Amino acid sequence: MSAVEQTQSIPELMADIGQRAKAAARSLAGATTEAKNTALLEAAKTMRERVSILQSENAKDIALGQEKGLSQPLLDRLLLTPERIEAMAVGLEDIAALPDPVGSVMAQWDRPNGLQIERVRTPLGVIGVIFESRPNVTADAGALCLKAGNAVILRGGSESFHSSAAIHACLCYGLRAADLPEDAIQRIPTRDRAAVGELLTMTDTVDVIVPRGGKSLIERVSAESRVPLFKHLEGLCHVYVDGAANLGMARDIVVNAKMRRTSICGSAETLLVDQRVVNSHLKPLIQDLQAAGCAVRGDAVAKQACPDIDVAVDEDWRTEYLAPVISVAVVDGVEGAIAHIETYGSNHTDSIVTDDAEAAERFLNGVDSAIVLHNASTQFADGGEFGMGAEIGIATGKLHARGPVGLEQLTSFKYRVRGTGQTRP
Among 3.40.47.10, 3.40.50.300, 3.40.1080.10, 3.40.309.10, what is the CATH number of 237-380? Predict the structure, then answer.
């Protein structure tokens, strides 16, 4: 524990962090794009110079996770390889290369009385980000909030405590190099869960909370927070293979959507197959998944096509496996797929595979998820793949931010009105 923790109670610690973040946010609101970019580029450079340190600290977390009996998917989320560290550094550089949203004019118009009105992007202020085992969120969240002119308070999971601290140190080095306040990116230096409870009540200093994690975390934050939220619910993602789907394309997409990386929120958890192509498509799709090392649980029709799979129960359709396991159901066309997704989905990411343009449009318009795709893998549910540089998470709510939360989603706006002496009659 840090010296700060030893001399302050949790409420005192959090109040101090909040006040320093608020002061830093005021400073950042007027920071130049050049200064923010310098901080990001220097942080990326430092990460590359400290690969061995980052891996050494990460090894402590991996060892503790193994002692605690963390599942393999969670350990995979936690692991920092040289390739993943390089990806974090590249992510910082990508964010630096993006246009600065702060101060950009979203719209402008003149009124008949001569008033000139414009809507301009502004920082949100102070953002609290609560996340679980993936330490790279420290870099992504810190960098995105900084570029959008916000101060951020990071609270990573206890599993990634040492890894997140080492990544945070790189970000702080970048802030110092750019002569920006180090308090712009703060990390809560304790594993004590009471710190989360305090953060959720800090309405005087925190403007929005972004929770990124499993169902239990989201439920706790939703129940306890007095600060507005960008909700990031679990990823119950579906791939629907339509009756007009090209089989070769469907096979490629389904295996990629499930197996490219099973521990991310964009991994497909349910495969839906149109009853029109049960005889031609269902068995090959299941066999491809099995060949890739995926366990399959299916409904009665899927079980009949492939007797060696397990029978799916109702809970399977509601489960985010984050592992090489998938549920398979046969549905009655696009409307059947939409009905299944409405019943069991989490409004995250869903895909249709079809050569029928009309069916694709019905799916894209009818599925009420943050991201809907046509003829593409659900694994593209990622801010970097959307050209945003990185993301804090996938917001599944409908207010303010939805889908990948990148730079623009981390800003608000205000109206600037210029007159020449007008008064209202």
Answer: 3.40.309.10
